[in-house]
DNA sequence: AGAGCCATGTAAGAGGTTACATGATTAG
DNA sequence: CTAATCATGTAACCTCTTACATGGCTCT
């Protein structure tokens, strides 16, 4: 909502971004043209790998863009068009790029975050800084390996009662999912851009 | 908030319950005593297998209980105590039990629902109707096997462009997670109550 | 005397879904 | 003429999280 100058935006609460918002920063950073508008982004979120990973409806997309603008992570300029509706052209700021790259460097802590958060990190690291891909995968592998170790210890603990039996069922699923994620990460490692 | 008779509750919107609410129905159904109160439930959600599967804070727990009462899936009676605060004793209704068992019979459709929804179904089927355990696991296995087949076909499709390459990375993770879930289900199948 | 349990909640806000509103232009 | 595309949103409604309010009792 700013027009080049971010003017009188209230500094809002504290900043905490979700995967959708980080991915928007990633889209701005990896755009061929300098700026993108919301409608264009919305289209890109319905196709390809991005569409497989996350679903982002126009309502939320525009909402996120406003929030990112409020926090100064992007700037917005109006592009007037004679024949079509005006466009809000968004451009990443320094703060936005810094926020993005901090996020890209952090591996996720839980296995369930692999499916969404880590896939996004992988995607945008591939597009923006492929030289860091190897590190990203290795670090994530290390985090999950530690987790797997802890799960193994719990699974192998002696079963005292019925409840411990149920708990073990749960932990064995977690362990299986974590190991599958680790195997997948390792299968990625050649990184010679094969399948 | 009914007091034996559900009196003047507004019929509310349509009924759609989440995993937390279904698990509450399950807790009522598997209670040793006829009724349970919220505080007791809250304690049980912090320990054992249930605590591993789902986290349910008091605020949400009481909120869910109210909603289930509004829909007539449970009844609520006040038990006065002289020395301690009054208790709201909740009991499952016919409608509640029917809702629960319908849910228990349905396998989940996506791999990511295994972690929460299916584990709950497994847990409560074990407690309430262990004779259906085998069927539940087999049906879930079948659903995931179909999914895995579809993923395999997509993964093996020829890669045309860079985007298809990224998409394949994503699909390979999905496939790995789905296969891990299938293996785990199969490891459950002996059902001789071993680890 | 103070901590913590018992028991039930409310309050405030973040986050998300679904559906629709607008209004011009272009394609079938 | 109808439908879709372009472009940006609003409105209503859920859900979930986090934190705290209450007030008597018991334990140390």
Proper CATH architecture of the largest domain in chain A: Orthogonal Bundle
**Roughly how many Å apart are the termini of chain A?**
42 Å
Strand content of chain A: 5-15%
SSE arrangement of chain A, N to C: HEHHHEEHHHH
Give the C-alpha Rg of chain A.
Answer: 21 Å
Count of DSSP strands of chain A: 3
Unreliable residue runs of chain A: 1-12
Helix/strand/pairing class of chain A, anyone?
mainly alpha
CATH superfamily of the largest domain in chain A: Winged helix-like DNA-binding domain superfamily/Winged helix DNA-binding domain
Could you report the average pLDDT of chain A, rounded to the nearest whole number?
A: 90
CATH class of the largest domain in chain A equals Mainly Alpha
CATH topology of the largest domain in chain A: Arc Repressor Mutant, subunit A
Largest sheet of chain A: 3 strands, antiparallel
Number of domains of chain A: 2
The helix count of chain A comes to 8
* Shape type of chain A: elongated
- What is the chains' assembly state? homodimer
**Major interchain interface with per-chain residue totals:** A-B, 35 and 34 residues
Helix share bin of chain A:
55-70%
How is the topology of this model organized?
The structure is a homodimer of 195-residue chains.
Chain A: H1 19-29, E1 36-37, H2 38-44, H3 48-53, H4 58-70, E2 74-79, E3 87-92, H5 94-105, H6 114-128, H7 133-156, H8 162-188
Antiparallel strand pairs in A: 1-3, 2-3
Helix pairs in contact in A: 1-5, 1-6, 2-4, 7-8
The first copy, chain A, binds a DNA duplex (28 and 28 nucleotides) through residues 13, 16, 18, 37-40, 42, 57-60, 62-63, 66, 81, 83-88.
């Amino acid at each position: 909502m700013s027009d080049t100058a971010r003017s009188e935006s209230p500094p809002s609460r504290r900043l905490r971004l979700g995967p959708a918002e980080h991915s928007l920063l990633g889209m701005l950073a990896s755009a061929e043209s300098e700026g993108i508008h919301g409608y264009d982004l919305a289209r890109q979120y319905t196709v390809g790998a991005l569409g497989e990973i996350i679903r982002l409806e126009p309502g939320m997309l525009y909402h996120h863009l406003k929030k990112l603008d409020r926090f100064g992570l992007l700037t917005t300029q109006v592009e007037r068009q004679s024949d079509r509706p005006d466009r809000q052209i968004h451009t990443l700021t320094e703060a936005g790029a810094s926020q993005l790259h901090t996020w890209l460097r952090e591996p996720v802590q839980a296995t369930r975050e692999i499916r969404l958060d880590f896939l996004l990190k992988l995607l945008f690291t591939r597009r923006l800084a492929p030289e860091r891909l190897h590190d990203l995968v290795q670090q994530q592998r290390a985090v999950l390996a530690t987790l797997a170790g802890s799960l193994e210890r719990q699974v192998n603990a002696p079963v005292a009662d019925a409840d411990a039996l149920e708990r073990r069922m749960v932990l064995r699923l977690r362990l299986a999912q974590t190991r599958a994620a680790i195997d997948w990460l390792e299968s990625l490692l050649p990184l010679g851009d094969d399948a």
